[in-house]
Amino acid sequence: MSLSNDMGFVMRSHLLAASIIARHATPENQILDDRELGILQEFCANPAQKDQLLLKHGMNELGKPAGSGAQDMGSLAGHCAARHGTDNPALDEEEIEMLRNWFERGGAGSGEAK
């Protein structure tokens, strides 16, 4: 996965969570598919367990720069989880809380990642 300049801007501007939510209602404009939404939902429910989540979904980050295992798998949601707790997170705490609340209200309509 190569993050486009636009997506990089969205993450640096801390607009990713709002963009995921806003664009989800229109299938042709969705940022994440159901699998990626499931991974993101798991992460937002318990960010402290990000390493276990990444391993569960085959995104080994051990001994690699944060996010590279997720990039190898083409996972934006995994990239967000992997960057959590670094000096350059993809989602800040406010965005994680926004997404957590959205998931809890059933906004994504998806369950745990398959």
Explained architecture:
With 114 residues, the chain is mainly α. 54% of the residues lie in helices and 0% in strands. Helix 2 packs parallel to helix 7 and helix 3 (34-45) packs parallel to helix 6 (76-83). Residues 110-114 have low confidence and may be disordered.
- Structural class by helix and strand composition: mainly alpha
Strand proportion, as a percent range, falls in under 5%
Number of contiguous helices:
7
Low-confidence spans: pLDDT under 50, at least 5 residues? 110-114
**Judging from the principal axes of the Cα atoms, what is the shape?**
globular
Percent helix among the residues? 40-55%
| Count of extended strands | 0
Order of helical and strand elements:
HHHHHHH
Taking the sheet with the most strands, its summary is: none
Mean pLDDT: 82
Keywords summarizing the entry:
single chain, 114 residues, mainly alpha, 7 helices
Q: Which helices and strands occur, and which strands form pairs?
A:
Layout: H1 5-12, H2 16-24, H3 34-45, H4 50-56, H5 68-73, H6 76-83, H7 93-104
Helix pairs in contact: 2-7, 3-6
What's this entry about, in short?
The chain is mainly α and 114 residues long. 54% of the residues lie in helices and 0% in strands. Helix 2 runs parallel beside helix 7.
